[in-house]
Amino acid sequence: MAASRLKGKPLLEINNIPIICHVLNKAMETGLEAIVATEDKEIVTAVEQNGDASKVILTENHKTGTDRIFEAFKKLKIKNVDYILNLQGDEPMIDPKDIINLNKLMIKNNSDIGTLASEIKKDTMLTNENIVKVITEKKLENNNFVKALNFLRKDLKKENSNVYHHIGIYCYKVSVLEKFINLDQTKSEIKNRLEQLRALDNNIKINVALSESSPIGVDTKEDYLALKKIMEYKS
After folding, report:
1. Is residue 26 within 8 Å of residue 94, measured between CB atoms?
2. How confident is the model at residue 4 (pLDDT cuts 50, 70, 90)?
3. Which neighbouring-strand residues pair with 156?
4. According to the model, what pLDDT value does residue 235 have?
5. d(Cα 116, Cα 102) in Å, to the nearest integer?
6. Distance of CA 88 to the CA centre of its chain
7. Residue 186 — left, alpha, or beta (φ > 0 → left; ψ -120 to 50 → alpha)?
8. Own/partner long-range contacts of 136-139 (Cβ < 8 Å, ≥24 apart)
9. What is the pLDDT of residues 104-142, one digit of tens each?
10. Which DSSP symbol is given to 185?
11. Predicted TM-score of the model (pTM)
């Protein structure tokens, strides 16, 4: 609720449904177990009113979303789980098929951390600090799972090779998630406001899969209005 660029964004409505509930619905379409983890009672109430009270858990205040999902995992006392997907609550147009594909690639490759990225369609995305970019070791293609070299918000040029639009989802091996949250935040993580840099700074490998869709995340009021227009038109 305290997002610096757009306060209260999880409860902004599209088609009379809060954004966080749109994201939960997309997660549930995968057939995987889906839970909203939040520190805000307003979000708990919204999820309960728009669905199922068992689909949300209240956590303590945390510096990062990764710390929050680990607390939720411990509170839920889930057994026999090898991987946890962390889907950010501002991606209401993410394609469930991309989530399923990431989950399958993680299992197939026995990876530590995995995420998604899509092709950059506009050059303006390279300089937009609200859009996170990932540089990969090799070109992303369907069904390959490529090592991430760096994540950036700015200082990119057209000449940079293998640059993609990073999408707000991570899949963690449970043992790696526990290791990750016990590491100190790094200088580059804090400076760039990108917690995935903590993994790279500690030599934890992140693999990237190509997403078929390129969803709009909600970071600003302009993002919200654009997304609202698209989603309400589609419905």
Report:
1. yes
2. confident
3. none
4. 67
5. 7
6. 4
7. beta
8. 136/162, 136/164, 136/208, 137/162, 138/162
9. 999 999 999 999 999 988 888 888 888 899 999 999 998
10. P
11. 0.90
- CB proximity list for 218: less than 8 A, separation 6 or greater: 6, 9, 12, 19, 90, 91, 92, 224, 227
How far apart CA 207 and CA 97 sit, in angstroms, is 18
pLDDT of residue 158: 64
**Helical H segments across 110-155, by residue range:** none
What is the amino acid identity at position 190? Answer: I
CB 173 within 8 A of CB 82: yes
Task: Tell me the three state secondary structure of residue 80.
Answer: coil
User: In the structure encoding, which two tokens stand for residue 5, read together?
Assistant: 């660029």
Residue given tokens 């939720």 in the structure block: 72
**Rounded Cα distance, 23 and 88, in Å:** 8
227: which 2 tokens?
Answer: 């997304």
